[in-house]
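Case study: Oxysterol-binding protein.
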Amino acid sequence: GAPAAPPGSDTYKGWLFKWTNYLKGYQRRWFVLSNGLLSYYRTQAEMAHTCRGTINLSTAHIDTEDSCNIVLSNGGRTYHLKANSEVERQRWVTALELAKAKAIRMRNNQSDDSGDEEPASQSDKSELHGPLKTLSSKLEDLSTCNELIAKHGAALQRSLSELENLRLPADSGEKIKAVNERATLFRITSNAMINACRDFLDLAESHSRKWQRLLQHEREQRIRLEETIEQLAKQHNSLERACRGAPGLGTGTASIASTAKAGSVQSAKGEASDEDEETEYFDAMEDAPAFITVTADPKHHRRSGSNLSGASEGHPEDWNLEDSVFESSNQSSYNESTGKDLLPRKRRRTRIPDKPNYSLNLWSIMKNCIGKELSKIPMPVNFNEPLSMLQRLTEDLEYHELLDKAVKCESSTEQMCFVAAFSVSSYSTTVHRTAKPFNPLLGETFELDRLEELGFRSLCEQVSHHPPAAAHHVYSRRGWTLWQEITIASKFRGKYLSIMPLGAIHLEFHSSGNHYVWRKVTSTVHNIIVGKLWIDQSGEIEIVNHKSKDKCQLKFTPYSYFSRDVPRKVTGVVSDADGKAHYVMSGTWDEKMECSKILHSSHGSTSTEGKQKTVYQTLSPKVLWRKYPLPDNAENMYFFSELALTLNEPEERVAPTDSRLRPDQRLMESGRWDEANVEKQRLEEKQRAVRRRREAEAVEALEEGKDYEGYLPLWFERKVDAVTGELICVYKGGYWEAKDKQDWSVCPDIF
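Here is what the predicted structure looks like once written out:
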């Protein structure tokens, strides 16, 4: 069959014949080339659940045997493939070579550490040019001495050979004299080389100390410069207001032509200062122009009764301090403001049994692994928390009221601020949660029906086991729908584990039709081997409104021991389709997010690093989201939030595949870990048996020439997303109707 995509695209698919063994010979297989990995399946339907093998092209060798054959080898793994024709073979070879080159570039560009040092300025380069020139001269002297040593050493060797071949005693005196002269010359040259080496080392050592002093001096100068720029920005802002002498600043504000590097240079707490205490500075993102944010005095701005629908105009009177959507507290429930038609909240549990103090015996785990296949080794529940991955995915809705408030926004840029805060809030529960959630079984589901209490209902389903993938759909009668399909990829790097969620999150508002799409950042679990586990979030989130083309670029700054930034810092800018910035986002992913409306922006000169400096003058920040405090005794309840404590609470009328009914998870929550381990092993073996039966059915269908559909999700179906163009599982309906009728006949027996 013809490949599904042209060579050079990110994904390349098609049929090839793969050598299996001498009995069956070449068998037809479906191959998928994506992200530098070549995977194959028996049928196209198997892509949903079973991958037969994968080879990494970044370290693979690609060879061609004849007009139709391709040989891929990577270490001890070799694929012998055959195409239908020479033309098709050449297409695949081209696609494989391009994918291999791209994978090698990505591997070479990947770096675990990021340096904080900046390039040397022109003055530093000129100051270091002299010592470097002297060192180069000494190095040339060493090279010259090395050549002389080689030359005289060869002459000495020839003389010694001639001395050995002497027969006449009369000639011995002259030959020995020549040898002595050459040996003396060799010794003099060697001494000269040694002296040159000594001079070289002394010079390098002295200049090394000088460079260290210069580097320390530059660091101190940089700190003083940042402090000076902060004071200048404050004084400029104060002088501007004093010069105008009016209660409001007006629409046109003077630009602050500062070219300092953007940095978190807030005054020390408690410092006595006459300048405006509300002035704040924000770090710029690496891939965006550097900027400084100066907060204007809100008392000098007119108050008006208008809402924030005109925020994109940049007028201070549009920022209503009292009646704005931004001003409503996120701590109050939505029922108190606009959810009067909703029923009172049902009383739910507020605690679970305390976590047992079981010591983890690594030897007992290793002892159970002897003589077993790696895939059959059961991991004990000691590493888990009593929630499944589907329930952890549902925890993203803990701050759903942010989306309820976003519905009320008339401006798309305002709405983007709440969506950005919601995307950050989903990480607040991870700061202390180092335990691993249970891996869902294939076909496992989890519902969270809060339609009558909070206005939304959520459904998750495990739609694939290899690779593991979960589909999620949320409908809110408050005017929004959210859906996503998440696949987890992980990389173990010795000291830490990187967890990379793959897949896009979609959010659509019913009335406006605004469709937002974003992806999650990388989570890193540190101290895997030794030390206390801790989690960090790093990377960037780009939220795009595909209707209005508004964007928000959020940067999660990774933790650094040497950084002066606030830990777990998140910064970003909300801009419209024309690239004009409207709001500055700032905060931390474990505490709160704030939004500041931009009144005016100005550009300074270009720095030596080539970055354009931008100064944003903003109004006072508004808190959009603040983390709820953890319940009492949370440290003994796996650091669960109030919502997490209710997720595994038994409920009636749920599907028989619901995570609440999973026996090993229930036993672990009750503190019966030994019984939970036995039950967990039973469930995993039952799932393997079902998979083996499904594979046997696929082989039988293949031998009979029939198509085998394989596993199909219960409540979701795969479709090509119209916005991203990706194949994604979307909710096809039927679950809540089946719940009303209590007709669960389509549900498999997985527990």
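For the exam, be able to explain this: The radius of gyration is 34 Å.
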